[in-house]
Amino acid sequence: MSPDMVTRLAALTIMQAHIVADELRDTVIPLLPASKRSFAASLTRRIERGTVLEEDALRELVTFGELLTQQIEAGTHVYWQGEDNHVRGGFEAIHREPEPTFLTRAVNRLRSTN
Fold first, then answer.
1. What are the backbone angles phi and psi of residue 51, rounded to the nearest 5°?
2. Is 54 helix (H, G, I), strand (E, B) or coil?
3. Per-residue pLDDT tens digits for 24-71
4. Domain coordinates of the chain in residue numbers?
5. 57-61, 72-76, 102-106, 108-112: least confidently modelled range
6. Has this prediction a pTM greater than 0.85?
7. What pLDDT score was predicted for residue 78?
8. Contact 43, 64 (CB under 8 A)
9. What is the pLDDT of residue 19?
10. Nearest to 63 by CA among 45, 42, 49
11. CA distances from 5 to 1, 2, 9, 12 (A)
12. Out of the domains of life, which is the source (predicted)?
């Protein structure tokens, strides 16, 4: 890989990281419990300082993704919806509370920046 290609990839990564920081600040942080906001705010500041490519920052991003997944799962409920005319007598339905719904959308947008 040429030095020019590495420079271009780094620039693209930093640009996408700033998109992630905006999404974190505008959508994700307001939906998190107060006890978990400081971690997300810390990640946002790291991105803004340009230190997101450091190894510990990348580990923190993975950890934060796992945290978001837990938040989404906690607000997602699967239940049985009975229906007389259904072949199996009903079907599984999913109800997601409002906050996890917004978090899911944000996570999907964050993943699309990869």
1. -100, 20
2. coil
3. 899 889 988 888 899 889 989 998 888 878 888 888 888 888 888 888
4. 3-112
5. 108-112
6. no
7. 93
8. yes
9. 87
10. 42
11. 6, 5, 6, 11
12. Bacteria
Indicate left, alpha or beta for 50 from its phi (over 0: left) and psi (-120 to 50: alpha).
left
Assess contact for 104 and 96: CB atoms under 8 A. yes
**Helix locations, the chain, DSSP H:** 3-23, 29-31, 34-49, 55-74, 98-112
Beta-ladder partners of 65: none
Q: Which two tokens stand for residue 99?
A: 């906050």
User: Tokens standing for 94?
Assistant: 């999913």
> Are the CB atoms for 89 and 82 separated by under 8 Å?
yes
Which residues, 6 or more positions from 92, have their beta carbon under 8 angstroms from its beta carbon?
78, 79, 80, 81
d(CA 29, CA 45): 13
